[in-house]
Design brief:
alpha+beta, seven-stranded mixed beta sheet, 60s Ribosomal Protein L30, Chain: A, 194 residues, elongated
């Protein structure tokens, strides 16, 4: 009887040990901010802000821009309607901008070039599939891809900030392929000084 009692106590001790330590919550990886083609497309490894900044939306969303974007979008007047028709859509699990979306990027670049005081916030979004951490990272890669494309079109990267909402702000709350397609997007928010 003693061996069974000892084995039971040992099992209880091991179970309590696992319960006490719990699972570590792994921090999402930092998204490296590209140099917008300024140095041959290499990554900017001088991320003095850690590459990500928190916003004031209760933790929902992460803002990128590192030391390239020199403004806080939350301190500026936001005009969501101005570029609402220029929303970029992405294929599943992709941050590559489709050729069919190029005219939208051209329109955004033109709007920024015609108004020198305006700045831009690019919000990257995903559908609900995938983990929260992965979708947050994918949303940031999508926003950064659009910023890179705008930089290649002649827009100064310091006028553009990015933010990822991952799956947190669906355009369509449905759980169908057509809803998912509408949720895989970048939205452009035109910003002006208050």
């Amino acid at each position: 009887m003693k061996p069974f009692k000892f084995a039971g106590l040992l099992a209880l001790g091991v179970a309590l040990s696992f319960a006490a330590t719990g699972c570590k919550h792994k921090q999402p990886p930092l998204t490296r901010i590209p140099n917008s083609g300024l140095n041959g497309g290499e990554n900017n490894n001088d991320l003095s802000n850690g590459g990500m900044l928190s916003n004031n939306n209760g933790g929902a969303g992460q803002m990128g821009g590192g030391d390239l974007a020199n403004f806080n979008p939350d301190d500026m007047a936001q005009d969501r309607a101005a570029l609402a028709t220029e929303t970029l859509y992405f294929d599943y699990d992709s941050s590559s901008i489709k050729g069919s979306e190029q005219s939208k990027l051209d329109a955004v670049a033109s709007a920024l070039k015609s108004d020198g005081s305006a700045k831009l916030l690019i919000e990257g979004n995903c559908d609900e599939r995938g983990t929260e951490e992965y979708n947050r990272s994918l949303g940031e890669r999508r926003a950064l891809a659009a910023r890179e494309a705008l930089a290649n079109a002649g827009v100064d990267s310091s006028r553009v900030a990015t933010r990822s909402y991952g799956e947190d702000k669906p355009a369509d709350p449905g759980h169908t392929p057509s809803a998912w397609a509408r949720n895989r997007r970048d939205e452009f928010v035109l910003l002006h000084p208050r």
